Amino acid sequence: MLYDCRSLADRDRGIAAAIEAVRNGELVVLPTDTVYGIGADAFTPHAVKALQDAKGRGRQMPPPVLIGSRHTLDGLVFSLPMAARDLVEAFWPGALTIVVEHSPSLQWDLGDLAGTVAVRMPLHPVALEVLRETGPMAVSSANKHGQPAAVTAEQAREQLGYTVRAYLEAGPCPDPVASTIVDLTGETPRVLREGAIPLDKLRDVVPDIADRED
How many CB atoms lie within 10 A of CB 190? Predict the structure, then answer.
């Protein structure tokens, strides 16, 4: 079902329906500050598999994890590098995804992670309201693999149909540019994907960050 979150009453119903769906291991589509995302509870393996199946992806492309609070990050990682803390302080919530080593004690199966996970805190009130109730969610762009990313929930529904329990519509994404991804698992931070946050802005915070071409 699609809920128009631009209406206060529909927003409340939609957010409640999305939270319930995630807790039940079902899929939801929600707006973010980049593009719309299809999400599932990060700690429910069958829900994560359903997400991958809906997109037409396999385990070799594990989804990023979205969180609703900076403090949640500390519970997901074994040790957070200072560069990661500085970047999070500067750009979260926002269009920055960081790749870090996840805690080995976590009971999740997001795919072939090789001990790392991509994490982001989005700058969108609807997404944050859902995430603060559900906890970490596996979230990927709300489209079939190889198809254009959805910039409205209606566009996502055209591609994903009944595989998703609740669609949260908040209008077109204001700036539909993918997040910048920075790998913080090595000795030198490195940009893996150029996106909404340019390299020069990252270097204002972490001067030695490497471009993906370096």
Answer: 17
CA-atom Rg of the chain in angstroms: 16
* pLDDT tens per residue across span 102-154: 998 898 999 987 899 999 999 999 999 999 999 999 999 999 999 999 999 99
State how far the Cα of 191 lies from the Cα of 20, in Å rounded to an integer. Answer: 36
- For residues 15-47, b (16+ Cβ closer than 10 Å) or e, as one string? bebbbebbeebbbbbbbbbbbbbbbbbbbbeeb
Helix (H) or strand (E) holding 115: none
- Residues 193 and 182: their CA atoms lie apart, in Å, by 7
User: What is the rounded distance in angstroms from the CA atom of residue 83 to the CA atom of residue 185?
Assistant: 10
